[in-house]
Amino acid sequence: MMVTANDGTELHYTVSGQGPPIVLIGGKTSSIESAWWRYLPELARELRVIALDNRGAGRSAKPDVPYSTEVMAEDALTVLNAAGERSAHWFGISLGGMIAQQIGLNHPEAVRSLILAASHCGDDRAETSGKPPEALVGNPLARFSNLYSTAFILEHPDWVAEDARHFGKMPLHAIHRQDQAVRNHHACDRLAQIRKPVLIVHGRQDRMVSVRRAEEMAARLPQARLEILDPAGHQVHSEHFQQVVGLVLDFVQGVESSEEG
User: Cα-atom radius of gyration of the chain, to the nearest Å?
Assistant: First the structure.
């Protein structure tokens, strides 16, 4: 399905399942297909799952104009409304988690809870190591060493390769524009304003976003629960797929039960 954002950008989204609504927001360069292909059928068993391609990715338009997490948050709200919902649980990975933070800050009425995976609250403190670990030298999957923990690549090469087959391509200008949104995300000093329940999921061995950034968010958010998974890299949601699905469903159901009570 397609919907038009406030500035005319066409946004692609999907809806599946029945139950409390959850919106899935992928990270930088990811699409519905690349980020959520494992998750959609699992979450749709119990939830109404709304997933979108961020501007610049997947089947959404790729305008060569400035991107920001605020603009991308408005995109996500446009999709939420097009799906017939006024509030939802928001599950964002990396850049998607930054977009979810903006929704929590600027549109608390649209938030039942936030789930932030492999994300941070701003200041673009890039920590990516350029060289793959020594254990992966010569390994054909070494190019994914900034995404997955070394242990996972060595122990589950077929899983990583299957993920990689779903990774899409983006035009260079769209990658730069999404990078721009990450660089200009500065929400750390405002996180205390988010009063809704938040689940933070992070990999202990994340080489792109240090686990310290997850701990920082947990300390600043009034209702945060922090789950650090070990071993796990930036693709924590893939490496610990079944565990994260369970965490998400239990968290959402707990929030829903508390609201009913």
Answer: 17
Q: What is the arithmetic mean of pLDDT over 7-30?
A: 98
Q: How far is CA 2 from the centre of its chain?
A: 20
Tens of pLDDT, residue by residue over 102-146, are: 999 999 999 999 999 999 999 756 565 668 899 999 999 999 999
Across the beta sheet with 111-117, what order do the strands follow?
A: 2-4, 10-16, 48-52, 21-25, 88-93, 111-117, 198-203, 224-229
Q: How confident is the model at residue 259 (pLDDT cuts 50, 70, 90)?
A: confident
Determine whether 131 is exposed, middle or buried from the number of CB atoms within 10 Å of its CB (0-12, 13-18, 19+).
Answer: exposed
Contact 23/113 with Cβ under 8 angstroms?
Answer: no
C-alpha to C-alpha distance for 116 and 204, rounded to whole angstroms? 15
* pTM of structure: 0.97
Query: Which run of H or of E encompasses 250?
Result: helix 241-260
Q: What is the distance between the terminal CA atoms of the chain, rounded to a whole angstrom?
A: 35
Cα–Cα distance for residue pair 99/79, rounded to 1 Å = 13
Instruction: Report the Cα 186 to chain-centroid distance in Å.
Output: 17
CA angle 233, 22, 55 (to 5 degrees): 70
